[in-house]
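User: Need the bound-state model for pyrazine-2-carboxylic acid:
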Amino acid sequence: MRGLLLVDVQNDFCPGGALAVPEGDKVVPVINDLMSKFSVVVASKDWHPHRTVHFQKWPVHCVHNSKGAEFHPGIASASIQQVFLKGTGDKDDGYSAYEATNLDLERYLKDQKVDELYVTGLATDYCVRASVLDSIKRGFKTYVVTDAVAAVDLKPGDGKKALDEMQRAGAVLVESKDL
Ligand code: VGL
Ligand code: ZN
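Assistant: Bound-state model below.
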């Protein structure tokens, strides 16, 4: 069974947000088109407390229950079956969707008989990367949909480097048109 994971497609990571990913919102229509092709669709949300060590590295973003932590308004969120909240502690970054604290993503996917996971969302060089590497470690055949992700690119080329690293770790890079 194939599953689709949306990583952190939240206002704060989109243009105008507190930690905007350049062109972060370009993933929205691509993801909406993909959702109907999957029977299991899940999402992660970056979901931070007001004070966390994470904000020593990053501007304040995705504070739980804030506007910035909501899904981008263009996302067809009715198709999302379950939302996994991560980065919820005051001492952890919670980059990976598998670090969600409200629910166990690995357990959920395995219960749904998902063995192939297609990963989309933001940002390629942080939470997508961490989620993909964890997904491989947990035994899922893991794909990255390259036109459905976007990078922070603090240093130019970070996104490309992250894609190379994910590929070396065993991820398969695909384009949405081939799904
Ligand atoms: C992320 C930086 C800080 C992400 C989250 O979703 O990729 N990046 N927090
Ligand atoms: Zn964060």
